[in-house]
Design a protein that fits this description.
The chain is of the alpha+beta class. 30% of the residues lie in helices and 34% in strands. The termini are far apart.
């Protein structure tokens, strides 16, 4: 008779603590993000712009962190051992660093022009670093967004697709920082 309550307790504990563990970002560079316009989570490593760098993973991670810092983008993911740095909850309007939002994201068009320039954009921007050899490292930059029209009546959020411009610029800045390093 005592076995049944103990089983239920174990099942309840597994469900409760399993949910807590599932909320954490998984190891191995796998980062999942949730944005308003998407029905499910997005595995950011499936939408990455990947470049190769002749440097150690630690140096590339440090350079990527510096790019975030220089761009004044607060990071909520910082794992130097796992090779992940980025933000999953960044909100911007009009400009992203020095680019008009429509140059880095496509959120569709309206009568006033590109939606990205007029919408509030929820952004997930993550850099994932992986060592290939002693002197070669891959840097993947994942960038996804969700736009919300803030004018007039309430509307559903829209999916925003990256143009690749920001990721290319991010990778170029990492290369420049690495080239300047001793």
């Amino acid at each position: 008779m005592m076995k049944t309550p103990i089983r239920w307790f174990c099942v309840a504990a597994a469900v409760l603590f399993g949910g807590v563990a599932g909320a954490q970002q998984p190891a191995g560079g796998r980062v999942h993000v949730k944005l308003p316009a998407y029905k499910g989570t997005i595995a950011i490593d499936t939408v990455m712009f990947v470049t190769d760098h002749e440097a150690s993973a630690a140096a590339v991670w440090s350079a990527a962190s510096r790019v975030f810092y220089d761009a004044k983008i607060a990071t909520d993911l910082r794992d130097s051992v796992g090779g992940v740095v980025g933000t999953t909850k960044y909100v911007k309007s009009t400009y992203m660093v020095n680019f008009p939002m429509s140059k880095v994201l496509n959120c569709g068009m309206s009568i006033t022009g590109p939606n990205a320039d007029n919408f509030r954009i929820n952004i997930a921007l993550v850099a994932i670093v992986s060592q290939v050899s002693a002197t070669k490292t891959k840097l993947g930059v994942g960038f996804v967004g969700s736009g919300l029209d803030m004018r007039g009546s309430s509307t559903d959020p829209v999916v925003c697709a990256s143009t690749g411009q920001f990721e290319g610029d991010f990778s170029a800045k990492v290369k420049k920082i690495l080239a300047a390093a001793p």
